[in-house]
Amino acid sequence: MNDGGAKAETLLKVAEIGGRGRSLVAAQSLRAGQVILRESPLLLYSAFPFLSSVSPYCDHCFRLVPSSAQKCQSCSLVSFCSPNCLASHTPWICESLRRLHQSSSAAFADQPSDLQVQARFLLSAYNLAAASPSDFQVLLSLQGSGNNGDSSSSVTDSAAAKFLHSLLSAVCPPLPVPISPELTAALLAKDKVNAFGLMEPFSVSNEKRSVRAYGIYPKTSLLNHDCLPNACRFDYVDSASDGNTDIIIRMIHDVPQGREICLSYFPVNMNYSSRQKRLLEDYGFKCDCDRCKVESSWSEGEEDENDVMEEMDDEDGQEEEMQDQEGDKEEEGEACGNGVDDESSFPHAYFFVRYMCEKESCFGTLAPLPPKTNDASKVLECNVCGSLKEDEVSGN
């Protein structure tokens, strides 16, 4: 972890919150736009299955590879944008990829493509164990996927772990660490709930962006979910600067000391039933945040996000009044949300109007640029498409 992690120690603290487990809360008052955490990945791995077309990204930094890309001469399966990135390609990973690719057509013939990506994660995890045993212990310390009561999901996860353990043990060169079916299952459980996707570049024509790579960020993984988050994640994978795979967490609005800091694990415009289904299937829990408590009583028609978006037009005229209420509501309770809890209307309408990107097919979240003075920035940046917008509401 880089210096951003050290800085976070003064801004955030780990706390146990009933029903939510380990969480990050504000160790002091935090300001809109403030960068509260910058973290480098513990490990990264490609999101491309072995049998897919060749990845257009560097297999280390995951920038788009230039025409002068350097392909590994031994396995010929991965490309790198520079000699420095190529140096990260260890002999064990290289030989493992070569052998897996040779056997993948038969081994994965009747298996979902997700298993090929999970195999990439396990290779990266075992390589981490050999290269940095202390970092491997950090990986093992992370929370694994919980029991969500879905027995079919548990059976699927168990079958995947057994299949991958058997395959890697048989095909790969001698592993750098002793492994067992139990260790393989534990690692896959940690990957399932802690991996962050690094997305492909945004474009209006590409409505559903694919993941180019996955990374494990231990401190960021302590941030819990809320459907009205008070912070959001930025990454700048295609930037030319060092640390392009770092995750940056920036505050959306002011929060007082002691408030839990939360992200949304998906676009905030998703409706109630879709959010609950996604959280239960992917993370093993049911959300009962303030927004979900209100929307759970809505009918199926009322909860459709298109209906909600229509209501936003009606809420625009009330925006100034709601902004005045924000400061008073902010002091109530310790929930993550944005401080606007008008249950007689739409608790997220104000959030949508002010903090959701208006660009077509984007659905990103807006946060102020980092403040350079004592006053918050009046320019908001989208964490998906990168567009900038003048904040029409003065003050936070």
UniProtKB/TrEMBL annotation:
SUPFAM superfamilies tied to this protein: SET domain
Stored InterPro entries: ASHR2-like, SET_dom, SET_dom_sf
One Pfam family of this chain: SET
Gene3D superfamilies per record: 1.10.220.160, 6.10.140.2220, SET domain
Residue stretches of biased makeup (Acidic residues): 300-341
Superkingdom per UniProt: Eukaryota
Region named Disordered: 298-341
The protein's name: Histone-lysine N-methyltransferase ASHR2
Organism: Cardamine amara subsp. amara
